[in-house]
Amino acid sequence: AKENGRNDFQLYTADFEYQAIHKLTLHHELLEGLQKREFILHYQPQYDLASGRIVGFEALVRWRHPIRGLVPPGEFIPAAEESGIIVPLGEWVLREACRQNKEWQDAGMPPLPMSVNLSVRQFSRRDLIEKIAEALRETKLDPKYLKLEITESMTMDVQRALSLLKELKELGVDISIDDFGTGYSSFNYLRHFPIGSLKIDRSFVWDIADNPSNAAIVASIIAMAHNLELQVIAEGVETIEQVRLLREHGCDEMQGYYGSPPLPGSGIEELLGQEGG
Ligand code: C2E
Ligand code: CA
Ligand code: CA
Ligand code: CA
């Protein structure tokens, strides 16, 4: 509607209005979905590259929409961020991930850390630490089994990030920098931040087998992380070639379809049952 002729303006306006209405509807639906408990978590296993064993999970939210079916987060997280609904949604995710992890431990599954994504909005709220402490207390999960994934953009305000991360560390919660390499980070801050690991973004990993410059980037991220005594996990690992290269470079862990896609809780229980014997 935007390319041709004189009626551009009107068409564009109509388009714009349509988008605005669509957006409002989505915001409203998200809120309703939260009240109706339409959100669920899937869990993607993380593997130790040397042993091949499962060493953790990442909780990933999905929306079980009554009409649209299972909606992936890429289709609603941006709207949830924009509307602010990410805050109560993120709190639900945090609590549900802790609850599930504790339930697995109580059932005798090997205790493993669960990673939870934090959004910018959550990270900038004053009650963040309180909410995390509350989720841990109420689910009785030992804080060492919770890991929070933040992105480089959340560390732009270095002073604030530093004090928040210190508080999280005091709580006993581990922190990982997600999508590493895609944001601007001053490598300098990494030395000062009390974080445990870096997650190399999928965009560097997917073609390491035939893109020498991405292979070089991945190799240097791993070397730098190890110099700083950080663990490194590669995301989006899909092929055996990628696994071999990552092993060669000494990467610690991997997450991706090669190991397993994100699964509902029952799928994880089956997987760990098989692994156990
Ligand atoms: P992310 O944190 O980078 O999560 C990894 C994404 O990569 C997931 O997509 C996962 O399903 C996908 N993935 C895993 N292995 C592979 C692979 O081998 N190949 C490919 N092509 N993709 C793989 P998903 O579940 O659609 O989530 C997308 C993004 O939505 C996440 O990216 C994260 O930024 C956001 N997200 C998901 N759950 C939450 C949440 O609870 N809170 C917040 N704030 N964001 C979330
Ligand atoms: Ca993540
Ligand atoms: Ca990621
Ligand atoms: Ca990513």
From TrEMBL:
<feature type="domain" description="EAL">
    <location>
        <begin position="23"/>
        <end position="276"/>
    </location>
</feature>
<protein>
    <submittedName>
        <fullName>EAL domain-containing protein</fullName>
    </submittedName>
</protein>
